[in-house]
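Subject: mismatched residue count in predicted assembly?

I count 1028 residues in my input, but I want to confirm that the predicted structure covers every chain. Input:
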Amino acid sequence: MTAGGDSARPAVGGPAASTLRLRSLGIDTLQEPMLFMRSDCSVCRSVGFTVLSRVRVGFAARHVVATVAMVDGNLLADGEAALSETALRALGAHPGDRIAVSHAPEVGSLSDLRAKVFGHRLDDDAMRRIIGDVVAGNYSPLHLAAFVTACAGERLDEAETLGLARAMIGTGERIVWPQPRVMDKHCVGGLPGNRTTLIVVPIVAAAGLTIPKTSSRAITSPAGTADTMETLAPVALTTAKMRRVVEREGGCIVWGGAVALSPADDVLIRVERPLDLDGEGQLVASVLSKKVAAGATHVLIDMPVGPTVKVRSAAAAQRLRAEMRAVGRALGLAVDVAITDGRQPVGRGIGPALEARDVLAVLQQAPDAPADLRERALQLAGAVLEMGGKAPPGGGRDVAASLLRGGRALAKFEAICAAQGGMRIPPTAAFSRPYLAARAGRVTAIDNRRLARIAKLAGAPQAPAAGVQFLAPLDTVVMAGQPLFVVHAEGPGELAYAFDYLMAQPDVVAIAEG
Amino acid sequence: MTAGGDSARPAVGGPAASTLRLRSLGIDTLQEPMLFMRSDCSVCRSVGFTVLSRVRVGFAARHVVATVAMVDGNLLADGEAALSETALRALGAHPGDRIAVSHAPEVGSLSDLRAKVFGHRLDDDAMRRIIGDVVAGNYSPLHLAAFVTACAGERLDEAETLGLARAMIGTGERIVWPQPRVMDKHCVGGLPGNRTTLIVVPIVAAAGLTIPKTSSRAITSPAGTADTMETLAPVALTTAKMRRVVEREGGCIVWGGAVALSPADDVLIRVERPLDLDGEGQLVASVLSKKVAAGATHVLIDMPVGPTVKVRSAAAAQRLRAEMRAVGRALGLAVDVAITDGRQPVGRGIGPALEARDVLAVLQQAPDAPADLRERALQLAGAVLEMGGKAPPGGGRDVAASLLRGGRALAKFEAICAAQGGMRIPPTAAFSRPYLAARAGRVTAIDNRRLARIAKLAGAPQAPAAGVQFLAPLDTVVMAGQPLFVVHAEGPGELAYAFDYLMAQPDVVAIAEG
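Triage response: the counts match. Full output below for your records.
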């Protein structure tokens, strides 16, 4: 390496971290950390920061990488800088502390990202470098978007998917359970109301198997399993608390995000959500890495297939099933995939509290409980029981049905809720409005994506009582003026907003005459 | 379409725009418009805004689409909201005005973007929809990143590239010139110091051809043609002013951004720059759409080829040349591509003012003017003269050389500068430091990308006097301790920062012993 002039001697006013006094402006930009600096700040000038620069902000042993925004006028005094609220908390710093600000270090894996964008494969080392930078917070939202896009569709082959899963596992926590057989379940999603987990877990735990279920909050849907469960019991448990619940009851339904199992997934999801983009490789890596991190040995994947859910065709389902099994095997997981019907919502509720009511109705064996949700849950629970050796091949559904009928599943569910911190009553929305059929006829098609969107516009999942109560499954014969579904919201504004969208959509529920 | 209940009647407190009183907090986030709202703002609650929501902010006839950030505490009073500075200016609004805030409308082309990400082709209508949304500001930075990534590498075929170019032309201004033959030139870039335009334009104009050159500022490089020219004369001319310069002198060198020729390109570049991503199709569409918009009929493309510039191989160059010609022909442009040497910087200067000095030295025929810059400029000017019928095939270089030798090119350049607003002297940097050879030997390889990065870290192009003065071309025999290049900066901090980076890079200039 060639040496330079007198560069061994540090320059005056060099780029080593400069310190500024931290202020809080009370500005919340959620996960995108921002550093607000005075445009005439002497640190900026000497080090060459400008708006949109990426900077490293350090305090004690922690640091975050933030984007610079500049402030004129009186918001900050000379020598002060402010962080967005989430960044402040991540840093563990408080107003008045001195923070160290320097240029963000070169992000080493960006050349790997470029290579992938330009069509090259990513080997295991490259995946590790990228995921390492992702978890460290070194990727700007734009870089994350580029990575998600470059991997979307079918752009990751099986080896890359395995590499991605391994890299995700390597950067998160792993839970190890004493039991030799640890059951788990996951639904690929896109099907509103498909909350079978809350019924499957108590059935499987009641049968004596261990099923420590960690679930997500909604990503692009109106309710995630964790959101729905949260209307019934606390879900943000620490790993220690989660272990105690499982020790006591054999099962749990908690929020995976609180257990930090897959920090890479958490970061990537922040960009996948607004982009509404995903890919087969990313899906497989995301699901299986979380299951390995959660300590599972046996995983049942529920994969609904239909024109308006995530997996659109039987061919795509077969491809995903094969990939899930192969990558699972390489990771030490036994994976079974149930290909199910994705043409219409499951149950009646779409939205956390509305779905929770469906679940309770099934567990309580209420006469008007949604039969489709009940049947799907029994089929899936039966598959888990068979994988776990608690039922003979083909006999799982019957064993599950008897556990449900005998009230043991309900008792187990109530016990799990109590162990997680106390069972609660799901809230009810203050406002609702029915959407009526314009003419008589038979229901021939249902647009799940649009129904989900309506539920989200109504406020789900942030407003847990909001959503859609669906009343017209396929083949229902309806009269003119009959409610097809009811929109629930916590305020009149959201209700109107959902209906504004609905009025502009033809055939969310298609009705054929005669 | 099925009708809904009583949804024909607007709901109370509906989602029609709510108004808020505008404040300025003096916060500059550059092009990403942000709307700062109080977290307890009644508008937010009734309409369902939250952090990261995309909202439409209207004032009089204009609107912008912005991302929401929430503010606690005292920055805003009840009923107030603030916009980032650039958004405020774009809206033409002032503190105290009432702005209308509503949810951003659905972005129609996002389904087209998804389709492209998932591997489908984009037809002309889809391209138009996407580019329409891009120009309207409806795409968030993440969506722009996804689009750029989905088109990167070779992911646009020739028909898509043509569709993209047409969509970009359709959303920008077009200049029409009275002359039947309008010459233009473009360099594909990545080669530091390659500022031939400032010599080619005066030669071509002195020969009696019309050459209204619009150029870019730096995208990912330490200097764009517009940055370099700006150290010598004003470049941000209106279209009317530009026409007067061309009428008077036959040519000009102005900043394309001030003439709004390609608003789509301007938006996409904001994301291409931090991502450092591009693609063949995007490149072709970007270059040719700007040339069509600028009113050119004949375009010469300078395409340097080398391992450390944008076009890495002869094969890639041939592919690009063929695509430029074919797409150009479809757009009514005669396109010629000169494939040139991209293995080392051209001239000595890398950075606006340093390059400007090289250009003046050539035009003034100074004895120490960089011979390589001179020769390249003569070759390219010669090709333009031949395309324009002012020299016989193969004779262009000699005609160009005689115009330079006779002082007519210099006189024309000075006249163009005067017509653009007045010739000025390029600034000189206050600080500089040489980088010395560690050992004796012959220069065998030069990393253009790293040299460009060093120039940028030193402050180019924002600091016009900053950059690198390169002194050791390929095959130079150097002694130990001899300066290979000199880093110039306007402050000691930037100088130190550039050297910090340099010290960590082996073989920016590779020297072989013996």
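The two ends of chain B are 83 Å apart (CA to CA). Marking this ticket as 'not a bug'.
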